[in-house]
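User: I've been trying to design a sequence by hand for this structure and keep getting stuck. Would you show me what you'd pick, starting by listing the structure so we're on the same page?

Assistant: Good idea, let's start from the same input. This is the structure you sent:
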């Protein structure tokens, strides 16, 4: 799996799938930033789902850990170093996900 999307990459965006099945880890989310406060408006963002409802996410030493297990290609998560602003300031980032929410990075 390629680590990240590159300029000139193409992929198909499907608006119907989540009407029939829930999102899965590794899925790409594509959305327009119109109306979202604090970020550039009218931009298209692409993010990857990394945390599912109720899971605990940690970013440590450039790896994603969910409920203590390291994520990798078998989880549809590419092998790239993940670093957060929090991790840059502290040795470890840790967050509990509310029961009904997913989290995406990208």
């Amino acid at each position: 799996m390629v680590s990240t999307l590159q300029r000139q990459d193409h992929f198909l965006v499907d608006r119907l799938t989540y009407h029939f099945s829930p999102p899965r880890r590794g899925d790409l989310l594509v959305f327009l930033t119109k109306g979202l406060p604090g970020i550039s408006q009218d931009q298209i963002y692409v993010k990857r789902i990394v945390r599912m409802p109720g899971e605990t996410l940690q970013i440590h030493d450039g790896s994603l850990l969910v409920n203590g297990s390291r994520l990798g290609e078998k989880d549809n998560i590419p092998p790239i170093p993940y670093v957060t602003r929090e991790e840059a300031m502290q040795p470890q980032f840790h967050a509990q996900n509310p029961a009904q929410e997913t989290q995406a990075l990208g």
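That's my pick for every position. To get oriented when you compare it with your attempt: The chain has one domain: 17-105. Residues 84 and 90 are 10 Å apart (CA to CA).
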